[in-house]
């Protein structure tokens, strides 16, 4: 497997859109209800670039099969050293180690940027994601019951944290 992790480019937006829309419409990995448009995905990408936040892709044989990003955890200045990350994979690319490569790259970029902590907000029913994060040093720090509603059910949220300065 010749997997490349690189910064996303505007040419990747259709692939990112397809990946995120699959997650929106079929999973509780993201609590949006409606598929995004290419214009919305482009606006998000441009805002991330303007804010200096990374958007990275995993490319295999010329095809984008996953992506990751992080952004400031909350919009108050005091949170400027804390980021929340997201990783989304093409459905057929799960279980191949792609998520780990993306997460590892995001962690490295966060450390190099002088950030202090990385936070994952994970649907509590997604035990695979919770266990995945534990493998990379994330620790469960909070559990919020019934904070979201999707697919005709209440959803619980798990907060996981990685202190970037600890090694």
Automatic annotation (TrEMBL):
The lineage of its organism: Bacteria, Pseudomonadati, Bacteroidota, Cytophagia, Cytophagales. CDD domains: NAT_SF. GO terms for molecular function: phosphinothricin N-acetyltransferase activity. The keyword Ligase does not apply. Keywords: Acyltransferase, Transferase. Its EC number is 2.3.1.183. Gene3D superfamilies: 3.40.630.30. It comes from Dyadobacter fermentans. PROSITE patterns: GNAT. This is Phosphinothricin acetyltransferase. Pfam families: Acetyltransf_1. PANTHER family: N-ACETYLTRANSFERASE, UPF0039 PROTEIN C11D3.02C. It comes from the Bacteria.
């Amino acid at each position: 497997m010749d997997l490349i992790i690189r910064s996303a480019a505007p040419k990747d937006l259709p692939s990112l859109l397809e990946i995120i829309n699959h997650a929106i419409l079929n999973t509780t990995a993201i609590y949006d209800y409606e598929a995004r448009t290419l214009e919305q995905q482009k606006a998000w990408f441009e805002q991330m670039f303007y804010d200096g936040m990374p958007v990275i892709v995993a490319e295999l044989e010329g095809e984008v099969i996953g992506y990751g990003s992080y952004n400031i955890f909350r919009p108050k200045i005091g949170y400027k050293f804390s980021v929340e990350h997201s990783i989304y994979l093409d459905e057929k690319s799960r279980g191949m180690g792609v998520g780990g490569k993306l997460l590892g790259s995001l962690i490295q970029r966060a450390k190099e940027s002088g950030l202090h902590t990385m936070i994952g907000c994970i649907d509590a029913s997604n035990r695979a994601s919770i266990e995945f994060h534990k493998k990379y040093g994330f620790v469960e720090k909070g559990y919020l019951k019934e904070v979201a509603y999707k697919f005709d059910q209440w959803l619980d949220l798990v907060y996981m944290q990685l202190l970037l300065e600890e090694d």
